[in-house]
Amino acid sequence: MKQSVYLLASAMASLSLLTSPAYALDFSGEASVGLENTDNSLRTRTNEQDELIVSAGVSGRLQENTGAFTSDISASVFQDHYTEDTFGDETNFNLRGMANWAIVRDRVDLIVQDFYQQRDINSLASSTPNNTQDTNVFSISPVMRFALANRHQLTVTPAFRDFYYEETIEDNQQLALQADWLYLLNRTMNVGAGVNFAETDYEDNALSDHTITSPYVIVSGERAKFDYRLNVGTTEIDRDTLPDEDGSMADLFVSYGKTDRSRITLRLASILTDASSNQFDSLTAIENGDFDNEQITSDVLRNEVMRLQYNLNQDRLSSSAWVELRDLDYKVDNSLDREVQEFGINLTYNLSSLMSASFRAVSRDTDVTLTNRNDDAMLLGVGMGYRLSRQLRTSLDINYYDEESSTLAGSEYEETSIVWRLAYAFGRVR
Fold first, then answer.
1. Would the pTM count as exceeding 0.85?
2. Please, how many CA atoms are within 13 Å of residue 378, restricted to the half-sphere of its CB?
3. What are the phi and psi torsion angles at 336 (to 5°)?
4. C-alpha distances out from residue 380 to 383, 400, 424, Å
5. Low-confidence ranges of the chain (pLDDT < 70)
6. Cα–Cα distance measured from residue 423 to residue 388, given in angstroms and rounded to the nearest whole number
């Protein structure tokens, strides 16, 4: 599977090179080495063990915008060596790629996306190398737009998605079709109707395949700084070997851009869905909800989410702040049911042309409904970066983790880690 992902990244990069003039490409990369010292590498409440982790790797980003073809591909590969042998050596490859080819301008687009990363096997356990697995999500979808009349537009989006999990058995393929009809009520408001159809086929025959059908009505609008979309309808899930599910659905997304550099987004939703679909939505836009708060499973679930997020990008300050409330109700395995409250903030400030500072804080409260288990997790991190030369940079980060649980079955630990990194930039140096 890794080989196919490498080939996909190469193919996307090659397509960028072959379909555009050289000046349209923007490539930047880094080669880096690092040291991390942690006082609790196993992340346990007892038997805490110090560890020194030596890492080395390369990363790069290729961007292109020629009008008809746009792409944004980021990839990295890092090798981690645990000098005290608490874990074996780890090689982690990550890829985040998107390519959009406007085959017929304003009529037909072809969108290809791929996301390769590591995720926790058990989302309620400590995040350590023995609780992580490689995952990959690949999607290809043509987007076809038809102007039916002066104020009417039909958008049809068939899609194929492939989900791969290294350790667990939820590998599956999805065939999906979304069709939306919109009527331009006035200059800033549309009304319409749509349907979303998705058929999921698991590679393991022990898992129940399912088909999701969701008809809905649409109200949407767009102004200079404000846009929104509301879908309200019903969902029916037909499962091959398990009871069928049906119920109402509502999904509201609001975006407000106070300036060109700041934006506030809000998502309010209550939908019947499956974990793979939620993972894809989270990867394409974190504003849809953080999938780290969910469990990889073949079960279907009701996902109720409220996520409010603020992003700011200025010359010297980049920041994001968010609050997310989740209520996850799994239909067969109710031991996975949970309520999650998450608050977070990220800040990066350029003190000068050579020095930057960063701060991060995340608090997550998870209530496991069936067992009355409560997990409280907190992360605090500060960092400093310094540009030694035009191409050479160094950074130092200090992170503090604290997790407590109301039961012995929960994850509970404290950890402080110090990370030093030296990076050499190549390509277009920013």
1. yes
2. 7
3. -90, -10
4. 10, 5, 27
5. 1-24, 409-410, 429-430
6. 10
